[in-house]
Design a protein that fits this description.
mainly beta; five-stranded mixed sheet; 0% helix; rod-shaped
C-alpha cells in the first residue's frame, strides 16, 4: 500500500496547446503540497493547482494462521474469526511454558510478534494493528491432550477372569 512520498513521478494531461509547470513525468517530492501551474494556449492565462498526496490506508486486520511449527508434529491453530479466538491442541507431555508461534496476518503488525517465545499455560491475547491504526484482539488458548493409554495388558487371573475376557473401552 504505502510508498515514499519523496519520490513520485506524476503523469499529468492538459488541453492541447496548454503547458504545465513542473512538467508531467518529472519526479517530485510530495511530502508537502506541490503547486502546478497550467498555462493556456494563449501563453498568458494561467491557473495554479495545489496537489496534496496522501496514502490510502487499509483497515484490514486479521490473524490468518497461527501455528506451532517447531513442535513435532507441528500444531496448527483453529481460528474462529467471528469470536476472534484461536485454539490449539498439543500432545500430552508438551511443555507450553516456552513456545514460539508462527503467525501470519493481514494488517501492519501483530503483538506479541510472530516468533516470540510465550508461556501458553493460560490464554494469551494477541493484537493485530491495521495500517489505519485500528486494532483487533484475538484470544489464543492452548489445550494439552490427556494422556492416552496406547497398550494395556493383564497377565494371569483376576477374580476368576483370564486376560482374554477383559475388554477395555475408552468412553
Amino acid at each position: 500500500y504505502m510508498t515514499s512520498l519523496s519520490s513520485l513521478t506524476p503523469t499529468i494531461t492538459v488541453s492541447a496547446g496548454a503547458t504545465i509547470s513542473p512538467a508531467s513525468g518529472v519526479t517530485q517530492d510530495f511530502s508537502d503540497p506541490k503547486t502546478y501551474t497550467v498555462t493556456a494556449q494563449d501563453g498568458t492565462t494561467t491557473q495554479a493547482y495545489t496537489i496534496n498526496v496522501t496514502f490510502l490506508t487499509s483497515s484490514t486486520k486479521a490473524i490468518t494462521a497461527f501455528n506451532f511449527n517447531a513442535l513435532n508434529p507441528a500444531v496448527t491453530g483453529t481460528i474462529n474469526e467471528t469470536n476472534h479466538t484461536i485454539a490449539l491442541t498439543v500432545p500430552y507431555g508438551t511443555s507450553v511454558t516456552a513456545i514460539f508461534p508462527t503467525i501470519s496476518i493481514t494488517g501492519a503488525t501483530v503483538s506479541p510478534a510472530s516468533g516470540v517465545i510465550q508461556n501458553f499455560t493460560n490464554s494469551k491475547t494477541y493484537t493485530v494493528t491495521a495500517q489505519d491504526g485500528t486494532t483487533q484482539t484475538y484470544t489464543v488458548t492452548v489445550t494439552i491432550l490427556a494422556q492416552q493409554i496406547t497398550t494395556y495388558s493383564v497377565g494371569g487371573t483376576i477374580s476368576g477372569l483370564t486376560s482374554s475376557s477383559i475388554i477395555l473401552r475408552n468412553n
